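Tokens for chain A. Residues wanted.
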């Protein structure tokens, strides 16, 4: 048996047995039966914990176990010796430690990723987002390193609302603001796109037009003349819609200037702003791509922007008002934008059509906000059924039980939006009254009531608080917390009494035995190890080693995805991550620490080792003792006061000696790094 195989066997026992204090168990039923197809009703995914029938055999987790777990989940960082010493002396300091960890920038990164999934902003296909503009594709240029602007632009929308939620948590505002806020983090590029989408009209019959822009753009001129963009985008300027193009973009025969009068000129002008010049009346033989005229920084200049509708006599923003948008924290649009459920990312994740008629939109909204989906066991009958579909109006049909509530409630969306999520302008549609009747709450709407009224109703619903406590449970343990337990209900009550402070709720939950397992909760499942789904594993390695985006999953630039980081990005797709299926009330979270996850983790760790173990890297082979000490303390997160420290240091040292006897110093140290990197405290197979 070679040194590597021998050590992997030893390390699994050494790191695992000494690290897994507490009653750990999981039934086969708690493992997802078909995680690759979470929306398939024939393969339900049960991620509930096997409940403890008694606390008689419960063994509480030690401080070095539960504190390391909590800090890793919240920040990706390992426990320091000072933190462990303080906790060992007084376990009650855990709450104040959590407060401090939540103040770290690494906590913002972890929360942002959690909110992207929790608010279902990261599940859309690229084409689905483009469809919202009524186009077949986005025609855009390239960033300075060759990265496609359209790929970058489309992806930025998934983090837009999550950044806003982090801001709400950081400012300790009521978490119900996620339902009613009209302020969202945007970039200048996104504001330009939203202004174009707002001017674009797509009705229920899919008839497409522009409100103002088409009548204002008669032609585009591409010229090698150096024209300031401010003049190009000023309708009062003689240089209106005259775009400067590099000389190589105008081949011979154009004479330094070309005029475009054919096709969709609005779309073409929008494309030029993002670096794409379309062919024009036969002068340009090929399309030309360059860096965006609005600047690369316009894709990443995040800031809070407040949406509002036009006042009397006021016109909405137009997409060419780039300078005004760049300097503004306000965006005037026709289309209502409020809360998580009206973002382009949410609409792209859950598109609708003339058959579904926004039913999926309202259902997924309820799943996000209240953790529940429609079913046929309704106990609330709305006061009126104006919006109930005739084909489902017969109470004797199998569909009636769902549709009697679903159809009147989906009308909140229908009164605000067409099937293509553009502004609803059909009076006959807006005349239908919506109503809300769900989970014990009933509200009668009025004709014209739209998504804003829905947001207000959701913000006062009693299911909102327990739903978001439960989502945080899934984030921490890959499984549900027992909602019927006194411990869970106490956390919900504290959440509500704190003024819906999400930060306060996290402190309560993560210091609770529901997460720490430092004491028994009878209806819970003991100390369940948290498998490092890719979001946890990558942040752990990145933050503990100070490697920016070690997995290459967060960068937008193609040039930063090459080499070892690029290979790691591909391997990261093998390790499971959280997600939601259509109609699924609970997230798809993989809790089974199987050999596939370990194999992918080991392969990724091999690439991490290439990044940090080299003559110019963080761990030069010239100092193996110092590197091994850092592997234990910084990477594995085992400070000297942790009872596992000495054993881990001894095992890694012996592994290095065996490896060096068979290979060179660099490879031996990289092999030792891999073992530390795949320890349970990093890969997450048991803390």
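Reply:
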């Amino acid at each position: 048996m070679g040194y590597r195989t021998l050590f992997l066997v030893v390390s699994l026992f050494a790191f695992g047995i000494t690290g897994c204090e507490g009653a750990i168990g999981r039934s086969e039923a708690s493992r997802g039966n078909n995680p690759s197809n979470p929306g398939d009703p024939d393969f339900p995914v049960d991620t509930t914990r096997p409940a403890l029938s008694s606390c008689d055999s419960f063994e509480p987790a030690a401080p070095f176990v539960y504190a390391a777990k909590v800090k890793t989940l919240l920040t990706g960082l390992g426990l320091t010796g000072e933190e462990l010493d303080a906790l060992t002396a007084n376990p009650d300091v855990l709450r104040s430690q959590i407060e401090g960890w939540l103040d770290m920038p690494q906590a913002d990164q972890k929360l942002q990723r959690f909110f992207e999934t929790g608010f279902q902003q990261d599940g859309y296909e690229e084409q689905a987002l483009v469809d919202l503009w009524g186009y077949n594709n986005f025609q855009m240029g390239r960033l300075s390193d060759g990265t496609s602007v359209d790929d970058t632009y489309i992806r930025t929308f998934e983090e837009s609302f999550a950044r806003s939620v982090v801001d709400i948590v950081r400012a300790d505002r009521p978490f119900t603001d996620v339902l009613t806020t009209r302020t969202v983090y945007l970039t200048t590029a996104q504001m330009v796109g939203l202004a174009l989408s707002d001017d674009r009209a797509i009705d229920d019959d899919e008839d497409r037009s522009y409100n103002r822009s088409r009548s204002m753009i008669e032609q585009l001129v591409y010229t090698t003349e150096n024209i300031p963009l401010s003049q190009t985008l000023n309708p009062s300027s003689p240089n209106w819609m005259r775009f400067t193009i590099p000389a190589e973009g105008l081949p011979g025969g154009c004479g330094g200037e070309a005029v475009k009068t054919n096709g969709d000129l609005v779309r073409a002008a929008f494309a030029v702003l993002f670096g794409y010049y379309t062919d024009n009346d036969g002068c340009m033989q090929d399309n030309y791509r360059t860096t965006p005229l609005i600047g690369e920084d316009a894709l990443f200049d995040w800031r809070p922007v407040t949406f509002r509708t036009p006042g009397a006599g006021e016109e909405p923003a137009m997409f060419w008002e780039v300078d005004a948008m760049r300097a503004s924290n306000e965006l005037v649009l026709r289309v209502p934008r409020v809360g998580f459920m009206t973002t382009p990312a949410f609409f792209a994740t859950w598109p609708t059509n003339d058959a579904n008629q926004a039913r999926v939109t309202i259902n997924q909204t309820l799943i996000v906000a209240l953790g529940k989906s429609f079913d046929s066991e309704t106990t609330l009958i709305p006061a009126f059924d104006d919006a109930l579909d005739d084909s489902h109006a017969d109470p004797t049909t199998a569909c009636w039980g769902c549709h009697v509530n679903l159809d009147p409630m989906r009308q909140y969306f229908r009164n605000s939006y067409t099937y293509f999520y553009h502004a609803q302008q059909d009076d006959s549609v807006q005349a239908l009254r919506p109503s809300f009747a769900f989970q014990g709450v009933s509200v009668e709407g009025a004709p014209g009531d739209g998504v804003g009224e829905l947001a207000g109703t959701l913000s006062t619903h009693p299911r909102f608080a327990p739903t978001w406590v439960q989502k945080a449970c899934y984030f921490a343990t890959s499984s549900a917390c027992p909602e019927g337990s006194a411990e869970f209900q106490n956390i919900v009550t504290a959440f509500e009494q704190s003024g819906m402070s999400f930060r306060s709720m996290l402190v309560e939950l993560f210091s609770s035995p529901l997460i720490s397992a430092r004491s028994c909760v009878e209806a819970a499942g003991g100390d369940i190890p948290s498998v490092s789904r890719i979001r946890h594993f990558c942040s752990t390695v990145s933050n503990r080693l100070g490697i920016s985006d070690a997995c290459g999953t967060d960068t937008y630039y193609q040039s930063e995805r090459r080499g070892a980081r690029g290979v790691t990005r591909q391997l990261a797709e093998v390790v499971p991550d959280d997600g939601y299926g259509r109609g699924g009330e609970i997230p798809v979270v993989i809790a089974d620490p199987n050999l596939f996850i370990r194999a992918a983790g080991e392969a990724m760790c091999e690439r991490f080792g290439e990044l940090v173990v080299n003559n110019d890297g963080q761990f030069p082979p010239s100092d193996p003792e110092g590197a091994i000490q850092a592997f234990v303390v910084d990477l594995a997160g085992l400070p000297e006061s942790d009872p596992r420290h000495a054993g881990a240091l001894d095992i890694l040292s012996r592994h290095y000696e065996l490896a060096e006897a068979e290979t060179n110093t660099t490879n031996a140290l990289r092999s030792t790094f891999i073992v530390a990197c795949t320890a349970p405290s990093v890969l997450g197979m048991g803390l």
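Residues 131 and 137 are 8 Å apart (CA to CA). Residues 30-96+464-528 form one domain.
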